[in-house]
Amino acid sequence: MNPYVVPGLVLVVLITVGIGAYGLRFARTTSDFLVASRSVSPTWNAAAIGGEYLSAASFLGVAGLILRYGVDVLWYPVGFAAGYLALLLFVAAPLRRSGAFTLPDFCQVRLRSPLLRRLATIFVIFIGCLYLVPQLQGAGLTFATITGGRYEWGALFVGLVVTANVALGGMRAITFVQAFQYWLKLTALAVPVIFLILQWQADGRPTVEPPSGPVFSATTTVTFSEAATLNLPDGSHTRVDAGEELTFAAGEPVPDVSSVDDRRGADWLLPGGDATLFATYSLILATFLGTMGLPHVLVRFYTNPDGASARRTTLVVLALVGLFYFLPTLYGVLGRVYTPQLLMTGRTDAVVLLLPEAALGGGHLGQFLGALVTAGALAAFLSTSSGLLTSVAGVVFTDVLHADRGGGSVRDFRVATVLAALLPMALSIYVANMDVSRVVGLAFAVAASSFCPLLVLGIWWRGLTDVGAVAGILAGGGAAMGAVLFTVLGPPLSGWPAQLVGQPAAWSVPLAFLVMAAGSLLTKGRVPGDIGATMLRLHAPESLRL
Questions:
Q1: Helices (H), 98-254
Q2: Which string of b and e fits 271-286 if b means at least 16 CB within 10 Å?
């Protein structure tokens, strides 16, 4: 076992808890716990948003998808980053000017509908839990990969650390923690990739993807966790049992495994493949529009002092996120050279963790850089999980426990935090084998089909009514939610049904907009009487002091 890993992980946890404890000194009121008393500067807030947004899907999942599927999945990092452009243009400043604490609060401010507020609460909890699960899943994967221990212990450990940190310090403390963890994650990927590229150069720049498919760069022993059939290059087939080990010499082609879906040769290098244009456009819609519907991202804009600060925050986030997403792509590409065995085991999400030692050897440099990326992975789980849990706990506090109506105490927020953490921790054990980025992509689809139409129409169209909003969320968001549940819990599909259910955003987002607009036009009499004052509040600069 790498001797640097455990000290590195312990150091990250101690720093996280220490910064959280420091932030606790400034957290005294429920406003501190919910929105940090709306006093976070754009620079701090941008780093904190980068810390919570760059999740396990970004740190591990993007590299794993590129290792497995190639060029086609570059839309994931592009969409994840570009989503902030839509957020900047349509949502950031007006949302901050609304004065809301949570998304359900915004529904109440804009449309005065208790029913819509309750529906928004359900979707915030669903999206938050769905997004939180892959963070804990990634933690379990990292723990199992690095230590050889049980997946469940890693997921539960991170869940408990995050729950304690959020419950004790709330948004005020989490802001400091997430800002630190963004820079840790960036360093953890940027420093090793410099040495990896130098090693690739020193090895004579081996071809990333030979025409016949990947080959082993060194003698490699592969252990199979489940029974499978190997399709060998000569056309023969070999059956392997769970727990069986096979050793391959350097230069041997990597056999195709029946239980693992991947792409080889030109299919890996060229766009298209088995994916249809429908699936591609659906993924773009989900990631580009889903960002503005993610509760843990939106709640951070409530912490800015004013709308102008919210816009500046978004601009800085665009730069920070764009810089980060260049790095996982390089890990996925170099993984085809140095860790092709992951294509046989299906554990491609582990490429970031295993690549430094695989490429640089088991010496001190390889071990140290391996420990560094592992520490960065832990930071990814902790920071994103903290933001998600804070946003869900805020909604549980205000709309499930209704603690805000009686003045609400800090103790009530801590109870809400514990309640919000229980379900994701249980679900993370059930979906242990799903691709991390795939699960996150489903959360984006639900967010894009529910809160994106609500926010865009609610901020920019005076004619939106509560009936139209409820109908649109139920139609688009409900359809996307059903597709997610079927994907996670139902039997596997093939053909067009698999495309429609696996990537629902291309039809669920237009459906939500259409139903929301049509429902509002049919119920024009339900437009709030104070709509003029509300829209002025959302769009007038604070400098006018209206």
A1: 103-111, 114-147, 151-202
A2: eeeebeeebbebbbbb
* Concatenated DSSP letters of 7-30: HHHHHHHHHHHHHHHHHHTT--SH
What the block records as the tokens of 314 is: 């978004």
User: pLDDT, tens digit, for every residue of 164-205?
Assistant: 878 776 666 778 888 888 999 999 999 999 999 999 999 988
Two tokens at 380?
């990814």
- For the record, the structure tokens of 372 come out as 């560094």
- Residue 206: DSSP 8-state: -
pLDDT digit string (tens) for 50-66?
888 888 778 888 899 89
Rounded to whole angstroms, how far apart are CA atoms 51 and 46?
A: 8
Burial class (CB in 10 A: 0-12, 13-18, 19+), 537: middle
Assess contact for 141 and 151: CB atoms under 8 A.
yes
Helices (H), 25-74: 30-35, 42-53, 56, 62-69
Give the helix/strand (H/E) hosting 240: strand 237-240
Q: Which of 336, 292, 344 is nearest to 314 (CA)?
A: 292
Joined tokens for residue 282: 């659906």
- Neighbour-count burial for 215-224, b at 16+ CB within 10 Å, e otherwise: bbbeebebeb
In the block, residue with structure tokens 């450990």? 157
pTM of the entire predicted model: 0.83
Tell me which amino acid residue 235 is: G
- State the pairing for strand pair 228-231/220-223: unpaired
Q: Provide DSSP, 407-427.
A: T--HHHHHHHHHHHHHHHHHH
